[in-house]
Amino acid sequence: MAVAGTSSRPATDRYVTATVSKGSVTETLALSGTVTRTNTADARFGTSGTVTSVKVAVGQKVKAGQVLATLDKAPLSVALLQAKAGLARAQATLSADLDSQTAAEAAAAKAKAAAAKAKAAAAKAAAASQAAMKSMQTAMAAVQQALAAQQKACAPVLSPTATPTPADLAACTATMQALAGAQAKATAAIGAAMGASAGGGAAPTSSVTAGATVKGASNAQIATDRANVLAARQKVDSAEDDLAAATLRCPVDGVVGTVTLVKGASSSGRAITVVGSGKADLSIEVPLSVRPLVAVGQAATVTPPGSTDELTAKVTRVSMLATSGTSGSTATYTTTLRAADPAQVLRTG
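Request: output the structure for the sequence above.
Response:
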């Protein structure tokens, strides 16, 4: 490139020379947008109940496996006992029907005397099982009463707005101890009921009568009993899972983003959001006038609010259609940038 120069002096004209070269012209487009974290996890209780504690707050760093919140375990413990009681009843029914079938087979194979003996043994086993069932039902009723008393006494303690007195705390503690005692007795009664029903039972075969009529359970009834026992065991497993789910643990390392769980309130529909480390997506609106200059794969920088530090990013998506509500010369196109943000300085929103 040559540039001509002039001078007021009557000297000979002078020329300044320079080498012509090619280079890139950089144009910077500054826009703001909304942030979405790509590694965000909502921690929710696996069962519903009353929240007894929330152990973290927004902005707090947390580790995977850390306890975030807890539920009232008393109703869940009672539900587990009820499921175990249902299993004991199902097992008792199966055992009684197996015993009756054994008695019928004995009558067919060993005549009247042997059948009478088997029938008596079955009746004795059934009586023992019925007695154990009655004791178990009494114990379960006591558990329900103790649970109702515990919830009433502990309501002033668990309320998020109440200031419990020493008397409130003492009353709550006493009813919790009473509930624990009732649960222990119910557990023992359930064990006794299961033990009473475990003595009977033989492999089912076809029912035959001989001499004195002894009617045994059919093979179809035995099959139904076995299915009922299986269903009862599944309910026990589910109740055990619910009890374990009363402790909410952090799913990933990160920072607490939001907390909607409230002490003393129901856990239903509420969660704790944890923002993990990694990348963040930034959604911006690119005007029509510069839309042709923006393409997927282009490098970009993102500056968090209130900071002078820049994060590296790349364009990952440019919408081919104008954003709803925009048109003509004022149309904009939704464009997504993905930024590396290991320090989690970009917040959702």
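The longest helix spans residues 74-158.
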